[in-house]
Amino acid sequence: MAKIQMAEPKDADLIYRHLMKVSGQTNNLSYSQKDIHKYLDEIKISDQMHDANATVFFAAFENEEIVGLAQLSRRNLPRYINRGDLAVSVDQDFWNQGIGSTLMEQVIDWAANDWKLHGIYLDVISGNLHAIDLYKEYGFKIIGDLPLLMTVSGRDIAGKLMFKEIVH
């Protein structure tokens, strides 16, 4: 079973490799391999991790590789400090092993107890029913349709905006 822990700046290379791998496995993510290569590198990932008040990464490690990743971000502006944005990815070789669920539990716990957020947003491709079902299991509700979430290979893809209220 994968070990889940908060990623540290020293894990930036592993995060980069994970993102490159999973972005080649599915079009359900916000980025393609080309996007990652162009806009991200280990230094940029590490820089994001140095402000634990703005971004945290929880990683699922298996044999010293990252096989799942959850990123929780928030803007450090007073008017936005109580809301977070979530992104989750799991290596296709490790789907249906509970990694996504465990990452969700860790992120929600962090959001509620460490950052004291009032809510978490995420967006998901409308056709990604497996992910939508997972998010619903953790209390996320569909709050809107996004006629254009992203464009993949020149084709516009619709999405859903989901939200989980955190009550303290």
TrEMBL record:
Query: Entry's SUPFAM superfamilies?
Result: Acyl-CoA N-acyltransferases (Nat)
For whether the record's keyword set contains Transferase, the answer is: yes
Occurrences of domain N-acetyltransferase (ranges): 2-167
Q: Which Pfam families match?
A: Acetyltransf_1
Superkingdom per UniProt: Bacteria
Supply the InterPro entries for this chain: Acyl_CoA_acyltransferase, GNAT_dom
GO MF annotation, one? acyltransferase activity, transferring groups other than amino-acyl groups
**UniProt keywords, alphabetically:** Transferase
Residues annotated as coiled-coil are none
Protein name as annotated: Acetyltransferase, GNAT family
Lineage of origin: Bacteria, Bacillati, Bacillota, Bacilli, Lactobacillales
